[in-house]
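Supplementary Methods S3. Complex input for the flavin-adenine dinucleotide-bound model.
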Amino acid sequence: MKNPFLPHKMEILDVIPETEIDSTFVLALDKPVKPGQFLELSLPGVGEAPISVSDFDEGRLFVTIRKVGRLTDAIFTLGPGDFLFARGPYGNGFDYQDFWGSDLKVIAGGTGLAPVKKVIKNFIDSDKVSSLQVLLGFKTPEDILYREEVRAWVDSGVATLTVDKAGSDWGGNTGLITGYLKGLDLSRLDKCKFIVVGPPVMIKFVTLELLLLKVPEDNIWVSLERKMSCGLGKCGHCKIDETYVCLEGPVFRFQRARRLLD
Ligand SMILES: Cc1cc2nc3c(=O)[nH]c(=O)nc-3n(C[C@H](O)[C@H](O)[C@H](O)COP(=O)(O)OP(=O)(O)OC[C@H]3O[C@@H](n4cnc5c(N)ncnc54)[C@H](O)[C@@H]3O)c2cc1C
Ligand code: FES
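Predicted complex, serialized as structure tokens:
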């Protein structure tokens, strides 16, 4: 039987700088993936970490990596033609059918945009949803990911972008993402479905506001970035009560996730 812990090699095709500490690595895609799933990326003798799939197309898989530690520092020394090692994809990911026919609202904070970028791209010009509204929050203008795509989404009226704080040269919105929830069109509340991704504190306050607006818990999806190690339901690192987030998540309906949020 094949050892599930054995990673396979993935060639780096390109590296796209996003911010001072985030870059998107374009890898040669060799397996089917779903948006919201993650890979266990590794380098021999350095380490291994879960990293979300941010996009994919014919033969290419995109991961946006923040340089924060041992493994990611080492990955940032690599370039096109070099190889990463990967296990997976793991996790349930987002099912597009869950959102068909809805007024879809995607609310993403910071690097939380990565696991939903493909979902946004899928629905942006699609008649599978009745409407799409995207709310994006970053700490500062310098932290904005996928600048060209985000600008196009904002210019087309699909997305509202805000930053927590900015210098006087920033002409856009400022303030926390929660302050912009009132701008969402909730006139057909029963048709509205919400995806909320970002840091735990942002998920907590955004979902709290949505519940106050009488959004049913069942119509909110979140993605939980728990501490993970094996990704295979073996090590228990991600286990909360009886739930293995790596197997049953990281995407959960809020009804389930609220019991899992710390
Ligand atoms: C489902 C999932 C999806 C994810 N998707 C992404 C993604 O798409 N992109 C992404 O960039 N990240 C993602 N992450 C997070 C990523 O897996 C972590 O940032 C990972 O730890 C990076 O590995 P590393 O070896 O580079 O960092 P590590 O060396 O493990 O460091 C991680 C953090 O711990 C701190 N740290 C390390 N050692 C110590 C110490 N001794 N004392 C105190 N603090 C310490 C570091 O400063 C850093 O902030 C995801 C995580 C999960 C669970
Ligand atoms: S990460 Fe090991 S059990 Fe989930």
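The mean pLDDT is 95. The pocket of FE2/S2 (inorganic) cluster (ligand 2) is lined by residues 228-231, 233-239, 244, 246 (CB under 6 Å).
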